[in-house]
From TrEMBL:
The keyword Signal applies. The lineage of its organism: Bacteria, Pseudomonadati, Bacteroidota, Flavobacteriia, Flavobacteriales. One of its GO terms (biological process) is response to antibiotic. This is beta-lactamase. Its EC number is 3.5.2.6. It comes from Salinimicrobium sediminis.
Length: 313
């Protein structure tokens, strides 16, 4: 066999081995799954959890393939829809936009307070959507992405079968009444973030910019409060009266891990810091950090909940 043939054979074997690694079936972390079931056993409502360690290829799941409402977590698929338009040349990342006060939509966010005819751009609108969960900019971004119909077509093409936009989407009016703005499963929403983290969502440049946008969340009161502030995390939160959800990727020293915690039909619909679902979110996040980083045990400083000025969350 010639040296060239040897090189071709070696290259072929390397490609084969690499493909095998990336196509390996995820293994269940039985210890982690058991612990999560114990932690959630007394919760007053329905819980879904999916945890995936990108380094070990292990997972833990509770109702991971059950459909839950997303609330504002649907803004992650909206982000995908906008970036597809950017990649296709239909939009520019710094596309100039002019705000119309008629777009104002209540709830979270800052854009609703813009003056009419304020000049802004698409990048700012996306940053507000992901960082502050801005509802006004999110609905605008959904429109720019081709509406719910366009985003859902994209999701289907990416083989996400249960993640869909429902609000302002033709033909999904009855589903909207059940799930609200969007719907997903814990496994699918986690996998979307994993693909972004690995540079596999469209291309590496798009994935990296989307990931950057997701690392600046304003909502650090919940799962993020249990992750050391000096460790980078990407996230998106969603919350309505009877459902609270969080999507998180932690760039931990020992290896990245991602999780999606979601609920529905919760009994405690309060909006206080001690809401049962938010307490559970913090408990799970703290447990995961200490489970994956046992040598770096950490907990929030005393008084984090109530600052020395007397201001409470």
């Amino acid at each position: 066999m010639t040296s060239q043939a040897n090189l071709l054979l070696l290259f072929s074997l390397l490609i084969s081995a690499t493909s095998t690694v990336f196509s390996q079936k995820r293994q269940t972390d039985k210890e982690l799954e058991k612990a999560l079931k114990e932690i959630t056993s007394d919760f007053n409502g329905d819980v879904g959890i999916y945890v995936y360690n990108l380094k070990t290829n292990k997972e833990a799941a509770i109702n991971a393939d059950t459909i839950f409402p997303t609330a504002s977590v649907i803004k992650v698929p909206i982000l995908l829809g906008v970036f597809q338009k950017i990649i296709n040349g239909e939009l520019k990342y710094n596309e100039p936009l002019v705000y119309d006060a008629k777009r104002a939509y209540g709830g979270s966010g800052l854009m609703q307070f813009y003056k009419d005819s304020t000049q802004t751009d698409l990048r700012t609108s996306l940053a507000l959507m992901m960082g502050y969960s801005d509802n006004t900019s999110s609905l605008w971004n959904q429109e720019l992405a081709g509406g719910g119909e366009g985003i859902n077509t994209l999701l289907e093409s990416l083989n996400f079968q249960d993640t869909r936009v429902n609000s302002r989407t033709k033909g999904r009016e009855d589903i909207w009444k059940r799930y609200g703005w969007g719907q997903t499963t814990p496994r699918e929403m986690t996998d979307i973030l994993v693909k972004i983290r690995r540079g596999e969502m469209f291309n590496s440049a798009a994935s990296e910019e989307m990931y950057r946008l997701m690392t600046n969340s304003f909502y650090t009161d919940y799962a993020l409060s249990e992750i050391p502030p000096y460790v980078q995390s990407a996230s998106k939160q969603g919350m309505v009266d009877d459902s609270r959800s969080e999507l998180v990727m932690v760039n931990a020293p020992s290896g990245d891990y991602a999780f999606y915690f979601t609920t529905k039909n919760i009994e405690d619909e309060s909006w206080e810091y001690e809401n049962e679902a938010w307490e559970l979110s913090r408990e799970i996040s703290a447990f995961l950090w200490n489970y994956f980083e046992p040598e770096l045990t950490w907990k929030p400083a005393e008084g984090t909940k109530e600052l020395t000025t007397g201001i409470k969350y």
